Amino acid sequence: MITTAFETIDAFWAMGGHGFYVWAAYGMWFVTLGVLLVQTAVARRRVRSRLRLYYEEQTITKTFMRDKR
Amino acid sequence: MWDWIKRTYHRWGSPRYFYQYARRGMVAAGLIAGVSLLVGLIWSLAFAPPDYQQGNSFRIIYIHVPAASVGMGFYALIAGCAFVSWVWKMKMADVVAEAAAPIGACFTFLSLFTGAVWGKPTWGTYWVWDARLTSMLILLFLYLGLMALRQSIASTSAGNKMCNLLAMVGAINLPIIKYSVEWWNTLHQPATFTITDSCHDHDGF
To answer: pLDDT value at position B205?
Structure first.
């Protein structure tokens, strides 16, 4: 039988008096990885839209050159 | 079989196939990572028994050590990619190196931050200039330098070349970090876990 390390939920938040340090560490972990995820998503969208623009321009130029001929 | 391995290996180096493979693997990798994180988080915070000397502050180890490993591992990845790109001029190596830098920087920062808030209740101080902490801070600056260098050079090929050089030269820092706790008398303890031996009994742990 696996038991939790804490009797009550209050004891869980207090972490035996070390709550500030434990929650600061885990909190910063969440914030940093959250920022990393958002940054990745934004960068990906930016690259894709830039590539889409590039290929659209290529297609327009190609059609234009063909029609001129 | 051998031909298949060779073909697959070479395809990983070509952007077209790389993005095909990566897209397929992304969802599965994300799922495995998410589930593992959730299990690890609950286990480390609520179920692992408190340390007999440090009480509950030791729970920081569950994010501190992996963060440091990822921070160093990603630098090794970048240095390896830099070498591949330098010697064989593979485009994918530059892309991987560029994408890995912010991830490595984030985890290196996390290892420093979690180490600091663990140091306060354990050592009585957030920061000391000992060899392990200082060399890890240098690793963070190397990451930031790599990202800044790439941003500051308009030409992609010249930027890649300079970043590769910096990444390879900076790799000398990795063994320094690893052995800093053995070469110098540091406040930071030597490795608690190794791959070959599950747990050493240290005075401080």
So the answer is: 44
